[in-house]
Specification:
Blueprint (H helix, E strand, L loop, with lengths): L1 H31 L5 H7 L10 H13 L9 E10 L2 E5 L3 E3 L3 E8 L3 E8 L2 E3 L8 E6 L4 E9 L2 E8 L5 E3 L3 E4 L4 E7 L3 E8 L2 E2 L5 E5 L5 E9 L1 E7 L16 H16 L5 E5 L10 H6 L6 E8 L10 E4 L7 H14 L6 E3 L12 H8 L3 E9 L3 H7 L2 H19 L9 E4 L16 E3 L3 E4 L4 E4 L8 E5 L4 E8 L4 E4 L5 E3 L5 E5 L8 E3 L3 E4 L4 E4 L8 E5 L4 E8 L4 E4 L5 E3 L3 E3 L5 E3 L3 E4 L5 E3 L8 E4 L5 E8 L4 E4 L5 E3 L5 E3 L1
Helix pairs in contact: 4-9, 6-9
InterPro entries: Bacterial_rp_domain, MurNAc-LAA_cat, N-acetylmuramoyl_amidase_3, SH3-like_bac-type
Protein name: N-acetylmuramoyl-L-alanine amidase
Keywords: Cell wall biogenesis/degradation, Hydrolase, Signal
């Protein structure tokens, strides 16, 4: 029994062993097979599975294999490099590598003491607009790119300065300046002289005591021209409290002339070309008239300031009294005209001379004295203090300041003077890259196509626009010259034929034709203005060059429809012509109030007018001693509107009396 059990156990063990070995070839074959045949061998070693069901498994594995294959369309990455070819500077980029199509930014900066010459990005040359500052830009990455730059050391330039006479003034010493740097030149006149011109590289830049060159890129020469000052002696006509007005008791001629001569002195000293003296240091002390004239010895001009007197209360003309033979003097006429215009006198100015019975010597002591020492002299009568309106006008300090300013301008214009500028002229060799400030220099050049006729003999043609400039010959009297440029203040004109300059003011020339391409900005306006001077011209355009189309009537009120943005010119609503507004005054609308009062007429020839203004049309006259009923009046009570016909009468000055 025991043996039978052993045999049975052995048989079972043999069967199990055979079963194991029946699987071994497939297993060992699977371990030895290449990886690419692994799936196929696995399918073969599974005889219990139908062949048709093995395909889906194969497909799934194939898809997994495709996901592990790298993409052939991956984005290219390019290298960005910088190369400094020459000089000293920096090149910076915002990235060292960039994908295709990506934007790359760069900045190229010269080191101190260097300038940028050129920049290349890949195969492209980049324009360098300003060599002295950093250059920035961008490009699109499309390949490996090199950004290269060249720099160079800044040069040094010589600024050579000089004066026409070292005894007349000084100028900043010559010096070197680094390229693109700046230098300020200062010119200073000595006592008795003034700076009449400053020339840079042989060209006038105006009489400026300070001149700055910015962004220097070449050598320069700067020359200061100094001239003798024009010396003017001012005489306050009377001392103490003298010549009281018979029509305005608070007015004294002596007080007015003392104030005016002080104001005029201040205004004239605004021009560095003038040296001013005064005959009196104390208003309270008298001084012999002849000695006041001789006090002008060594001076170029003597002006004795006065107001006039006459028995007539309506006389108001300004009067200039000259030395013998000088009644045609241009300065005398200009002074008379400016007083007339500034005071708005009803009568035009006059120029006289008055001699003693010998018809040789001056009647007036101050003119006799000034002539004795060789000084050109004038007595300047500022209207009549026997005229109420004139006496009141001359009693105002603000009016006297206005008069002083106007007279100073006339005198300066006569002598070709301009005021010193408040700031330096700024110039630049490289205007496209400099930050320059503008100057209101009166000698700034503007283009012009004017034609001018020379009215005097011996008018100098000069190398530059300055009386101290070299004379290149004479312009012919009565000949017409074409200009190609002029100074901004209109005082000098450059001839088209030879480039020389002639002085245009003081009646030396007359414009015969002009053209201008500059447009004037205008704005709408409904303002009313009253003309305060005679001979105010209607012009076709808002310019003194505009064609004259007639004259406006003095004291007439005009309605505007437009004016220039600077307020200097106004366009009339009626005809579209232009007038110069400096010779007008605004007319404010008068407020009307109702009234039923009655007035009696106290004078003869009191006019009825269409509106409440002395410039309004006369509609007839009211009768003396007759009583009229009003229906309205102006709020200031000066004008009343008649109920019967709507016309206006003037109520003040004792013309009417309320009943």
């Amino acid at each position: 029994m025991r043996n039978r059990t052993r045999i049975f156990s052995l048989a079972i063990a043999v069967c199990m062993l055979l079963t194991v070995f029946s699987f071994a070839p497939a297993v060992f074959a699977q371990e030895d097979a290449p990886s690419g045949e692994q799936t196929e061998q696995t399918q073969i070693s599974a005889p219990t599975e139908p062949a048709a069901e093995a395909e889906p498994a194969a497909k799934m594995l194939s898809e997994n294999e495709e996901e592990e294959v790298p993409s052939q369309e991956e984005t290219e990455v390019y290298t960005i490099r910088t190369v400094l070819e020459e000089g000293s500077g920096t090149i910076t980029v915002d990235k060292q590598e960039a994908k295709q199509g990506e934007i790359v930014s760069y900045t190229v900066t010269p080191s101190t003491g260097y300038k940028l010459l050129s920049v290349t990005v890949g195969e492209d040359s980049i324009a360098v607009e300003n060599s002295y500052t950093a250059l920035s830009g961008t490009f699109t990455a499309e390949a490996d790119t090199i950004i290269s730059a060249r720099f160079a050391k800044l040069s040094t330039f010589k600024i050579t300065t000089s004066v026409n006479s070292s005894s007349r003034g000084t100028i900043t010493a010559s010096q070197n300046v680094t390229e693109n740097g700046s230098v300020t030149i200062t010119a200073k006149a000595k006592s008795g002289y003034y700076l009449s011109d400053l020339q840079v590289d042989g060209k006038s830049v105006g009489a400026k005591s300070t001149y700055t060159l910015n962004n220097v890129t070449k050598d320069h020469t700067v020359k200061a021209i100094f001239s003798e000052q024009i010396k003017i002696m001012l005489d306050a006509g009377h001392y103490g409290k003298y010549n009281r007005s018979p029509v305005y008791s608070s007015y004294y001629e002596s007080n007015m002339t003392w104030s005016l001569h002080n104001y005029l002195k201040e205004e004239l000293l605004e021009y560095s070309g003038f040296a001013i003296g005064v005959t009196r240091k104390d208003q309270k002390k008298d001084m012999n008239v002849y000695n006041r004239g001789t006090a002008s010895k060594g001076y170029d001009l003597f002006l004795s300031l006065h107001s006039n007197a006459v028995s007539s209360k309506s006389t108001d003309y300004p009067l200039i009294i000259t030395q013998k033979g000088n009644t045609g003097d241009k300065l005398a006429k200009n002074l008379g005209k400016v007083i007339e215009d500034t005071m708005n006198t009803k009568q035009g100015y006059k120029v006289w001379q008055k001699l003693n019975s010998d018809n040789k010597t001056e009647y007036y002591g101050v003119l006799r004295g000034s002539k004795a020492v060789g000084t050109k002299g004038m007595i300047v009568e500022h209207s009549f203090h026997t005229n109420l309106a004139a006496a009141k006008w001359l009693s105002s300090n603000s009016n006297l300041k206005k008069m002083a300013e106007a007279e100073a301008e006339v005198i300066a214009d006569y002598y070709g003077m301009t005021k010193d500028g408040s700031g330096a002229i700024i110039d630049s060799d490289n205007s496209s890259s400099s930050n320059t400030s503008s100057s209101n220099s009166s000698s700034k050049i503007v283009s012009s196509s004017q034609k001018v006729k020379v009215l005097v003999g011996s008018l100098n043609m000069r190398k530059s626009y300055s009386t101290s400039s070299k004379s290149m010959g004479k312009a012919k009297k009565n000949k017409v010259y074409q200009l190609k440029a002029k100074t901004k203040d209109g005082k000098w004109g450059q001839l088209k034929t030879n480039g020389y300059w002639i002085y245009l003011k003081n009646g030396y020339t007359k414009v015969v034709s002009s053209s201008s391409s500059s447009s004037v900005k205008t704005v709408k306006s409904s303002q009313k203005v009253k003309v305060v001077r005679s001979n105010l011209k209607f012009r076709k355009s808002p310019s003194t060059k505009g064609k004259v189309l007639g004259k406006a009537k003095k004291n007439k009120t005009y309605r505007l429809k437009a004016k220039t943005s600077n307020g200097k010119w106004g366009q009339l609503k009626t005809n579209g012509y232009w007038i110069y507004l400096n010779w007008t005054k605004p007319v404010t609308s008068t407020k009307i109030v109702k009234t039923s009062k009655r007035v009696r007429i106290k004078v003869t020839s009191l006019r009825m007018r269409k509106s409440c203004s002395t410039s309004s049309r006369t509609m007839g006259k009211v009768k003396k001693n007759k009583v009229y009923r009003l229906k309205a009046k102006t709020s200031n009570g000066k004008w009343g509107q008649l109920k019967r016909n709507g016309y206006w009468i003037y109520l003040k000055n004792g013309y009417t009396k309320t009943v």
